[in-house]
Specification:
The complex is a heterodimer. By secondary structure, chain A is mainly alpha-helical. Chain A has helices at about 5-30, 35-50, 60-75, 80, 100-115, 120-130, 135-140, 145-165. The termini of chain A are far apart. By secondary structure, chain B is mainly alpha-helical. The longest helix of chain B has 28 residues, at about 40-65. The chains are: A mainly alpha, B mainly alpha.
Chain lengths: ~170, ~120
C-alpha cells in the first residue's frame, strides 16, 4: 500500500486531472468508452494498491498518462481473458453527451476519424491538440524519440484532415 | 483558418464532449479492482504442467532407448546375424546400376558343374 499522505496528495491531484485522464484513456483505447473506463479504473487501482508509485521524477500528469498507456496495452493483451471476468463493482453509467447539436456532431466526427488513424498517430494528436502539450513532451509520454513523434504527428494530422474533408465536416 | 486552428477547434469540442460523459472520479477511485479471472491463474499453470509432462516423457523415452554401459548384456553373434537389417540397408543404392558391368554375373554366381561358361562359344 502506498504511503497514506502521499496517496492523499496524489488522489487530490488526480481528481483535478480526471477529465483529461479519461480523454487520454479514450485515445489509448481507440475511443471505446467502455474500455477507456475500464482502463482508467485499473490505472487508479494500481495506484491505490501500490502497484504504481509516483516517484516525483516527472510531472504527475506525465507519469499518470504513462500508467494509463501501459494499462491500456496490458488490457489489450489480455482482452480474450478479460471477456470472461466478472466485474466486482459496476460503475454508474456515464451521463449521455449533451450540448449543442453542431458541436456534438463535430466531436463525434472527430472521434470517428481518430479511431481510424493508427495508434501512435492518435496518441500524438491527442496529446498535442487535446491536451495542448508540446510534441517533445508527447514523445516522453509515448516513449518514442522526438523524430518519431514528429513523424506520427505530421502523418496523423494529414490523415485526420483527409478523413474530415472527405466526410464534409466543417468546424464552425 | 489554417489546419492547426481547425483541428484545435475540433479537439476543443471533443474535449468538452468527453468531459461531460466522463464517469465520476470518486466512483472510479474507490471502486475495487476487478477480480482476476481464474483463467489468468489456470492458463499459465496448465501450460507449465503440460510442458513439464512433455519434457519428462521425452526424457524418459530417450533414457529407455539409450544403451546403458552397466545393464547391456553381451549379445551373442548368432543373434546379431539373425537380427533384422534396417530397411535402409535393403534398399538398393541409387548408383548401384553402375556396377552392372558385362560379366558381373560370372563373378557373383557359382557356375553349374555340368555347364561350362564357355559353352556355346565358338571361335
Amino acid at each position: 500500500m502506498a504511503d497514506p499522505q502521499t496517496l492523499a496528495d496524489v488522489e487530490r491531484e488526480l481528481a483535478t486531472l480526471h477529465a483529461s485522464s479519461y480523454g487520454w484513456a479514450l485515445a489509448c483505447c481507440g475511443r471505446d468508452p467502455d474500455e477507456a473506463a475500464d482502463v482508467l479504473q485499473q490505472a487508479y487501482f494500481k495506484i491505490v494498491s501500490g502497484g504504481a508509485r509516483f516517484d516525483g521524477r516527472s510531472a504527475l500528469k506525465t507519469w499518470f498518462f504513462g500508467v494509463i498507456r501501459l494499462t491500456a496495452h496490458e488490457h489489450r493483451r489480455w482482452r480474450f481473458v478479460r471477456r470472461r471476468e466478472i466485474a466486482v463493482d459496476v460503475l454508474p453509467d456515464a451521463p449521455a453527451s449533451s450540448g449543442p447539436l453542431v458541436d456534438r456532431q463535430t466531436a463525434e466526427a472527430l472521434s470517428r476519424a481518430l479511431a481510424r488513424v493508427s495508434e501512435r498517430q492518435r496518441e500524438v494528436l491527442h496529446l498535442v491538440f487535446y491536451e495542448g502539450i508540446s510534441i517533445a513532451e508527447a514523445a516522453i509520454i509515448m516513449r518514442v524519440s522526438l523524430g518519431t513523434a514528429r513523424l506520427h504527428y505530421e502523418r496523423g494530422k494529414a490523415a485526420i484532415l483527409d478523413i474530415l474533408t472527405r466526410e464534409g465536416v466543417k468546424f464552425p | 483558418m489554417n489546419d492547426d486552428e481547425r483541428l484545435e477547434k475540433g479537439f476543443a469540442k471533443l474535449r468538452e464532449a468527453d468531459k461531460r460523459r466522463a464517469p465520476p472520479f470518486d466512483a472510479m477511485w474507490r471502486a475495487p479492482g476487478r477480480k482476476r479471472s481464474a483463467w489468468i491463474v489456470v492458463l499459465p499453470m496448465g501450460t507449465a504442467a503440460v510442458a513439464a509432462a512433455a519434457a519428462f516423457l521425452v526424457w524418459f523415452d530417450v533414457e529407455r532407448d539409450a544403451p546403458s554401459a552397466t545393464s547391456a548384456a553381451p549379445v551373442p553373434a548368432v543373434v546379431v546375424a539373425a537380427a533384422p537389417m534396417p530397411a535402409i540397408v535393403l534398399e538398393p543404392a541409387p548408383l548401384d546400376f553402375l556396377l552392372n558391368v558385362p560379366g558381373r554375373a560370372s563373378l557373383t554366381t557359382t557356375p553349374d558343374f555340368d555347364r561350362s561358361l564357355l559353352q556355346g562359344r565358338r571361335r
